[in-house]
Amino acid sequence: MDIPRRDNVTSNGHLNESASGTAAPVDEEDEVLVPITITGPQPLAYEAQAMINDIISARTSRSTQRVKNIPDHILPFVIARRAPFIEAAQGGEINLILNAPEREITVSGDREAVVRVVETIQATIEAFQSLLIPVKIPLPKRQHRLLIGKALEEIMAKSQCSVVIPEPHEQSEEVVVYGKQGDISTGLGVVMEKANSQYIYELPLPGPITVSRQLLAYITRINYPETLSTDHPDISVFMPSAIAIDQAAVLNIDIVGEKPLVDAAVRQVSEFLDKLVGATREVSIDWLIHPVIMGRHEKM
User: Fold this and answer.
1) How far is CA 93 from each of CA 1, 62, 82, 115, 118, rounded to the nearest angstrom?
2) pLDDT tens digits, 218-271
3) N or C terminus: which one in the chain shows less Cβ crowding within 10 Å?
4) How many domains does the chain have?
């Protein structure tokens, strides 16, 4: 007789996790089997086989599967349909876990319920792939900051549309709005409303660029953005990305919020920068001394 590998099943019927903390999906047709031989008098051998089958049945009644690589523009629509996925379990015990950065959903619980839910999720993804149409909007990079996080949830709730923005390191400024034919015009309006909902001030760090990088390193080191946010809790502060630090000719600190609040924060930062100009310089230190500096003196 064949039984599943021991490292795929635990005593409570759940999958063992790997060293990385993730569990591979288990499907009956893909499950690795290990043959075993029962030796002994025939009646006892049959009895042992029946007992083993009962144990296997109890321990493999649960499974875990993942729906991976969900397209960026479809993921918000899938997230919004959690209730129908729960209904697809038909009363079976089920648990759904979203990993948004990896664009995947983990489904675990009763084996048959897991299969039904996974099939429903996959069917939903296929349906939206044919239903959604894309419309591109050119928007300055600084406004992309207003179309992330909770803003995406609000756009979906108001218009039934999703938004995909380019990565910060990409040159493109085009934002893509996805929606059904009847929803796309509303989605475009909501996106533009959200993109213009707050005042954005780009505060350039004094140059040349070598000086700007020194100032940025010092500001980051002393956690000045956190201090500024504490002093002005209703504004958001965005520092230059790693790509910008390496490639941009000018480094900007973006301050976002209501205009009077942003203006007050800009004045504070400007006064702070005035004190720093000419007060920083780079020092070359022998690499043998680096461990000492990065040790007990790291927080100086």
Assistant:
1) 30, 9, 15, 12, 14
2) 999 899 999 999 999 999 998 988 777 888 888 999 999 999 999 999 999 999
3) C
4) 4
